[in-house]
Design brief:
Elements (H helix, E strand, L loop, with lengths): L1 E6 L2 E6 L3 H19 L6 H20 L5 H21 L31
Antiparallel strand pairs: 1-2
Helix pairs in contact: 1-3, 2-3
Length: 120
C-alpha cells in the first residue's frame, strides 16, 4: 500500500514503512525546514561538512553506547538534506549553479510562491 505524503507541494510516496521511503520522506521534511530557517543558501559546503562530521561523531558514539541508532539516523537525514540543497540550489562559493527547475512557473498551492524546490 502506497502512502503519499506531501511536503511543500511535492508528493513523496513509499510503501508501508519501507526504510528507504521513510528516509527520503524525512530528508524532504528536513530540507524544507532547513530552507525556511536558512533560505539564503550561503556556505552550504561548510554546512555539509559540519553535518558529515556530526554523523561521524554519532557513529563513534554508538560504539560507546552514548547515542541511539535514531540519533545516527537523524544525522544521516541532515547530511542528505544538505547534499540535496547543494545539488539543487548550487554552491556559489565553488561556482556551481545547481539544477534549475525544469517545470518553469511552478508555484506552491497554498501561497502562490515558488514551489518547494525552487527559488525562482
Amino acid at each position: 500500500m502506497n502512502n503519499p505524503r506531501n511536503i511543500g507541494g511535492v508528493a513523496i510516496e513509499y510503501s508501508g514503512s519501507h526504510p528507504r521511503g521513510k528516509f527520503l520522506f524525512d530528508v524532504a521534511q528536513e530540507n524544507k525546514k532547513a530552507r525556511e530557517k536558512f533560505p539564503g543558501g550561503k556556505s552550504l559546503d561548510t554546512a555539509l561538512m559540519e553535518e558529515v562530521g556530526e554523523l561521524a561523531q554519532a557513529l563513534l558514539k554508538i560504539e560507546e553506547s552514548n547515542w541511539s541508532p535514531e540519533q545516527v539516523y537523524q544525522e544521516a537525514v541532515q547530511v542528505a538534506s544538505m547534499a540535496m540543497r547543494i545539488a539543487v540550489e548550487g554552491c556559489p562559493e565553488h561556482s556551481y549553479q545547481g539544477m534549475k527547475c525544469g517545470f518553469g512557473g511552478c508555484t506552491q498551492p497554498a501561497t502562490g510562491g515558488p514551489c518547494a524546490l525552487c527559488y525562482e
